[in-house]
Design goal:
This protein is of the alpha/beta class. The protein has helices at residues 16-30, 45-54, 74-78, 109-117, 153-158, 165-176, 183-189, 196-217, 232-235, 247-254, 273-280, 291-296, 330-347, and strands spanning 4-9, 34-39, 59-63, 82-85, 102-106, 123-125, 142-147, 224-227, 240-242, 257-261, 284-288, 303-306. It folds into 2 domains: 4-129 and 329-351, Rossmann fold, CATH 3.40.50; 142-328, Rossmann fold (3-Layer(aba) Sandwich). The chain is built from 13 helices and 12 strands. The strands form 2 sheets. A 6-stranded parallel beta sheet has the order 2-1-3-4-5-6, sandwiched between helices. Strands 9-8-7-10-11-12 form a 6-stranded parallel beta sheet, with helices on one face. The radius of gyration is 21 Å and the shape is globular. The two termini are 13 Å apart.
């Protein structure tokens, strides 16, 4: 019999999860899976729940964590296995681990290991995917582009109590250093356990804010076009700032760019969608170091990495190259997902 998977789509900034859900759904259909997409934001949750209960699928899934009500995982509410395809660090979705019907995928391998260390075995690595049919334009009108929000890291720092500030600053410095340590490990090693998710959120935001602002500032003689919310104009006066646009539109901008700047210091062993989409659109991509890049794009001439603070060493060139991303297409991610889910069903007859 055909596998049936329903995808739940919630709201998120820049509508990226809506876009990913459509693409993954198309890829699952190409693998012979029956899929339905349900928009669960704007008060549509109960309507979606009724339709799903009326014709229950084998599995529901969502990008990021969708939880309604008292933090009881959705799979347990409906008694249908639910896969949370996390795009953020797993520390923010630990309530999913309590679910009998929960499955989790992470875009970072260290997160998969972390979840398993906590005794949750139904977790696997599912990096970001990319459309199989993208390409860029001949005409490249943007020298350099950046997509994403800006946060005032000095404000975040100022909000920390003097007692814990040195601890959090030290953790942030380690995450930004070439050591390759994650925010989670840095905080645990600094002895932060009480209030870990909250401090993780603040250090994570601080690190991301500092990294991207300094990255953009390093391009003082190149016009960097930015699409994103927050105090970009104040913190990066050298940039050309545009209003934020949905993910689907950012792809159109990537097709006209020579260089895409990407900052994702939170994933030391994982993927980021802008890396894959930038390469697919024919840009050169400059991003922070991660083992995912070393393992998958070791000799890729269009992909450059930077080390925080070593800005003078950056010299990416535009190479007009077509990069083969077959191993990273949504079709590959669909196959990985199907394999994991089939194994799960074979070993958990009781749930089916």
């Amino acid at each position: 019999t055909l596998m049936r998977i329903d995808l739940l789509v919630g709201e998120n900034q820049y509508d990226s999860t809506l876009y990913f859900s459509k693409k993954l759904s198309e890829a699952l259909e190409r693998q012979g899976v029956n899929t339905r997409l349900f928009w669960v934001a704007d008060g549509n949750f109960h309507e979606a729940a009724r339709a799903i209960m009326h014709e229950p699928p084998d599995l529901t899934c969502s990008f990021s964590d969708i939880t309604v009500g008292d933090n009881q995982p959705i799979g347990d509410q409906w008694q249908i296995p639910h896969l949370s395809m996390l795009l953020d660090p797993a520390i923010y979705s630990l309530h999913q681990l309590k679910g009998e019907y929960s499955l989790i995928s992470c875009v970072d391998e260290e997160d998969v290991a972390f979840v398993k260390e906590l005794g949750f075995e139904r977790a696997f690595f599912l990096p970001h995917g990319v459309d199989h049919d993208l390409s860029g334009y001949e005409e490249r009108s943007y020298e350099a582009v950046f997509f994403g929000s800006c946060f005032d890291y000095e404000k975040i720092n100022a909000s920390w109590s003097p007692k814990i500030r040195p601890l959090l600053e030290q953790a942030a410095e380690r995450v930004l250093s070439p050591e390759g340590i994650s925010t989670l490990r840095a905080l645990l090693e600094a002895g932060v356990e009480k209030g870990l998710p909250t401090y993780h959120h603040e250090v994570d935001l601080y690190v991301r804010a500092k990294d991207r602002v300094e990255l953009v500032r390093a391009f003082s003689s190149t016009p960097v076009h930015i699409w994103g919310s927050g105090p970009w104009k104040r913190l990066c006066p050298n940039a050309i700032v545009h209003r934020s646009i949905p993910f689907e539109k950012t792809i159109e901008k990537m097709k006209r760019a020579k260089l895409l700047l990407n900052s994702a210091p939170r994933f030391k062993h994982g993927s980021h969608e802008r890396i894959l989409y930038g390469l697919a659109c024919g840009c050169s991509v400059l991003t922070g170091e991660s083992s995912f890049i070393t393992n998958h794009f070791h000799d890729e001439p269009s992909l450059y990495t930077y080390r925080y603070g070593h800005w003078q060493e950056i010299s990416p060139k535009y190479s007009e190259r077509k990069v083969n991303l077959n191993h990273h297409s949504w079709d590959q991610r669909a196959k990985t997902l199907i394999t994991f889910v089939k194994n799960f069903f074979e070993t958990n007859h009781a749930l089916v």
